Amino acid sequence: MTEHPHEIRLRVNGVPHTLRVPARRLLSDCLRHDLGLTGTHVGCEHGVCGACTVLLDGLPVRSCLMLAVGAARHSDITTVEGLAGPDGSLHPVQRAFGECHALQCGFCTPGFLTLVASHLEDNPDPTEAEARDAISGNLCRCTGYQNIVAAVLRAAELRREAPPAGERRAAGGVPGDAGGPA
């Protein structure tokens, strides 16, 4: 039986796309293979690790658990590439992860970056305990989480130092500025 493709419209990092995808195409595969946005990493493929986390209408979701046709009902998808500003300026979370050495192999980093960016929208001044709780659903096998927690707190500081307009949630960021290997 041949699966007929579905035409969908997605707005990813501020850019509209019209695609033809099979009904069972995962959002993570659509982003990576159809749109070439390889910053979204696929780890466990069960929604457990968080490496594939993207923002759907500003909220973190596991893109390996969502079908691309289901994402078409939403107005905005932001991947790690979309966090940076149109001019290439790094989002405060990206800056903080670099400053705090909150990555090692980088595989989990895109999921952490999108998750933390969303968390700081809701809680712009987290305590250390709140930062730990916020990242508790994402897995990292390298860092031991100490520097990731420090980066969450540092990102909150950087946000307070810069005007909110400096943040880009879906402003059409610079592809390839993923914060980790593809």
Automatic annotation (TrEMBL):
Pfam families: Fer2, Fer2_2. Coiled coil: none annotated. Residues 161-170 have a biased composition (Basic and acidic residues). The keyword Oxidoreductase applies. The keyword Signal does not apply. Gene3D superfamilies: 3.10.20.30, [2Fe-2S]-binding domain. Keywords: 2Fe-2S, Iron, Iron-sulfur, Metal-binding, Oxidoreductase. Residues 6-83 form the 2Fe-2S ferredoxin-type domain. It comes from the Bacteria. Residues 161-182 are annotated as: Disordered. InterPro entries: 2Fe-2S-bd, 2Fe-2S-bd_dom_sf, 2Fe-2S_ferredoxin-like_sf, 2Fe-2S_ferredoxin-type, 2Fe2S_fd_BS, Beta-grasp_dom_sf, Diverse_Oxidoreductases. Residues 173-182 have a biased composition (Gly residues). This is (2Fe-2S)-binding protein. It comes from Nocardiopsis mangrovi.
